[in-house]
């Protein structure tokens, strides 16, 4: 369903964020992408919907090759890829409903979207989704009045109302407490199962990833270091993913290392 | 450097002896320059007039009070003109400033090499000339009257509004824009959903702030013939009609207080 073919990204500074990444994700599979900060996880998912332009390589979404598309065709393909962000990335001064409906922007003309006259079936779908995540009573609240977990649910609704085939999820739980993190991960995985969506989830918390996904991909310095089921993540594998040279670049990751090497988590 | 080793142990001073001397010498030079300037000003001043000032001021105040209240009937139109000059000028300035701001902001400009410098030039050039001077120029071009005042205020305000607005645009959160882009929204939709909501409070704040300033500025435009209450002020000053002057000043004060109150209300409402 999604296929990356020698996907490479070199930033202007000369940093090679992705080194010819090869990856194939079948329909309906939820994949966790782990690896230290700076390994290229964010770059990878942003190269798929071209928020970051890949330097070379190809991205196939179904039968469409994305890297060659012009602006209009790219916008149409972006509708098939819902994105969920670390800091929720809701438009703070718009209401919850407006935020959810903004997921339909790719389907609605400019004037209709400007005057907020979305088709009734979009509004119905927005209410259904908000009801599904338990926020229907918040529809008229402004996004900045919500708590972190609630905001992320709105972010999920915005991605799902696009009617996507694929979810690109960038650190969905990094700003949330442990309990809310689990709830959000559970919600994303349930919704993917309900709708048969494939998803790539960037995540720092290896234990959390193991709890919910069927396949884990370990990225290190822009290259796939591990690809397998969550059970196969042994301490040795984790050591190769979070290798010594990466600690220098990211001192913050010490905490993560402790998490991942926790025997309970790895077991 | 400030630590001085002595047999009893190190002593710490804020400055070394040399630094302290240099500072004292600097102060001495400054004081001398001030006194010299003072003496030059004193030589060029006719002290008789200055000594006379309190008496003259008292005299004018005496003549100006009480204000000639009946003159108010001649002021309704001019103050209405003044408010209109400020309001229309601000509206025109805002309409022109929005595109300039988007072209000038680093994150929305279509071309940082060509378009952005032009937008910045518009901002700098309109901002650097006082509205009174714009009015003088415009009176020569389009003749005296309210219209010249409106245009003068508008031109003067473009740069101010565009500068504050483009700074607000540069400070928006990029991830919100990214999120809207990721939905497949078009360029204009990204602007309407991702950028406009983020800068709306700044825009409203800038608009009332500039309107507030423009009310003050438009009260003096009449001095050069660009309409509004300044015209009456100048006429009254020229004929030494002090009771009228005091009434005009009171009316201006009232208008400014009113505009302060309105802009404070608006700003409180948008936060």
TrEMBL record, chain A:
User: What is the recorded name of this protein?
Assistant: Phosphate-import ATP-binding protein PhnC
Q: What is its EC number?
A: 3.6.3.27
Enzyme class label: hydrolase
- In what residue span(s) does the ABC transporter domain sit? 2-246
What taxonomic ancestry is recorded? Answer: Bacteria, Pseudomonadati, Pseudomonadota, Alphaproteobacteria, Rhodobacterales
Q: Which InterPro entries does this UniProt record tie to the protein? A: AAA+_ATPase, ABC_transporter-like_ATP-bd, ABC_transporter-like_CS, ABC_transpr_PhnC, MetN_ABC_transporter-like, P-loop_NTPase
Which Gene3D superfamilies does the UniProt record give?
P-loop containing nucleotide triphosphate hydrolases
Sorted alphabetically, which keywords does the UniProt record give? ATP-binding, Cell inner membrane, Cell membrane, Hydrolase, Membrane, Nucleotide-binding, Translocase, Transport
Q: Which source organism does the UniProt entry give?
A: Jannaschia rubra
Automatic annotation (TrEMBL), chain B:
- Do you know which Gene3D superfamilies this protein is assigned to? MetI-like
Superkingdom of origin? Bacteria
Segments crossing the lipid bilayer: 21-41, 85-105, 112-129, 135-155, 241-262
Q: Does the keyword Membrane apply?
A: yes
UniProt keyword Cell membrane, yes or no: yes
**InterPro entries in the record, alphabetically?**
MetI-like, MetI-like_sf, PhnE/PtxC
Instruction: List the Pfam families hit by this protein, alphabetically.
Output: BPD_transp_1
Where does the ABC transmembrane type-1 domain start and stop, copy by copy? Answer: 79-263
Q: How does it sit in the membrane?
A: Multi-pass membrane protein
Q: Per UniProt, which keywords does this protein have?
A: Cell membrane, Membrane, Transmembrane, Transmembrane helix, Transport
Chief localization class? Answer: membrane
Q: List localization entries.
A: Cell membrane
Q: Which GO terms describe its cellular component?
A: plasma membrane
Q: Which GO terms describe its molecular function?
A: ABC-type phosphonate transporter activity
Q: Which family does it belong to?
A: Belongs to the binding-protein-dependent transport system permease family.
- The protein in question is named Phosphate-import permease protein PhnE
Q: Give the organism the record lists.
A: Jannaschia rubra
Its lineage reads:
Bacteria, Pseudomonadati, Pseudomonadota, Alphaproteobacteria, Rhodobacterales
